[in-house]
Each structure stands twice: as C-alpha cells, then as structure tokens.
Fold:
Amino acid sequence: MDPQAACDVSRRRFGLQALGFGGALLASTQLTAYAAETVPNQATGPVQQGGLSPRLTMHALDTYHGTPAAGMRVDFSRIDGERITQLATVTLAPNGRSEPPLLIGDSYRVGTYELLLHADDYFAMRHAVLPRPAFLSKIPIRFRVVDAGQRIHLPVLFGPWNYTYYRGS
Structure:
C-alpha cells in the first residue's frame, strides 16, 4: 500500500471519529437542556389530579389477555391487629378501576388494608384455558395508609402465574 494512501485513510478515520464524538456531545447537551425544560416538579402530583381530595383507588390490568380486569371481584378489608373487617366487595368497572374510590372523605383513614383479588373466578368468567388447579386463585395485597392527606392509587398487573403492584399517586 502506498504510504500516502495510508495517511489519507487514517486522516479520514480520525475525521469521522471526531464528527461522531462531536455529534454525540452536542446531542447529549441538547437532551440535557430539553430534559431540564420538560421534566415536571416531582414533589407534586400530576396536573390532572389537581383539586382532587385525598382518596384510595385501584386499577387492575390483566396481562394474560392484555385488557383491564373488567368485572373482577375484589374484597376490600381493614386490618386491626389480628382482626380483619371487610369494608366492601367491589366489581371492577369496564376500565378495570374501582369506581367509586375505595376510600374517600371520612372513611379514608390511616391504617392497614387488604385487597383480595378473585383471580380464579375472573379467569373462569373470561373462559381462559388454564391448567387446573389454577396456580393463583386469590391474590392478597396488603398495604398501609400512613398519611390520609395523600391520594393513593394502586395499579395491579396480574396474570395466571404472577402479579405485581405498586403505589401510584
């Protein structure tokens, strides 16, 4: 190979690398500036919750069918030490949400609570072809309300073999 051609190749390679590095640096600077302008203050709730009173709501999503858990039965209870007091049995709305809220107003108090999702009945109602006996039957979710001045939303994702939930707001 001609020494002049080798020099030209290395110069081209260096030039391309410099352009790539400069472009990446510029893009990251612009992304940081964009993020600083668009990320909302996380110390407050989303705008759509502005003006809503404190409440407890839930939303169940069926990951097996990829739909909201419309029609699912959920037992809602308060736990005081060893005593469990059932407060309500709700059937989830077509959007998979508890409507009205599970707790709102004077009923919304600090304490330990449990949601019992009837997954076995739900999948039977949906005519899901699953092994018998079902791996999951009833799904218990226990949680605490430590500040009755906050809005708490519990999204629950579940399928025939797993579930997860988290505290939303």
Residues 157 and 163 are 6 Å apart (CA to CA).
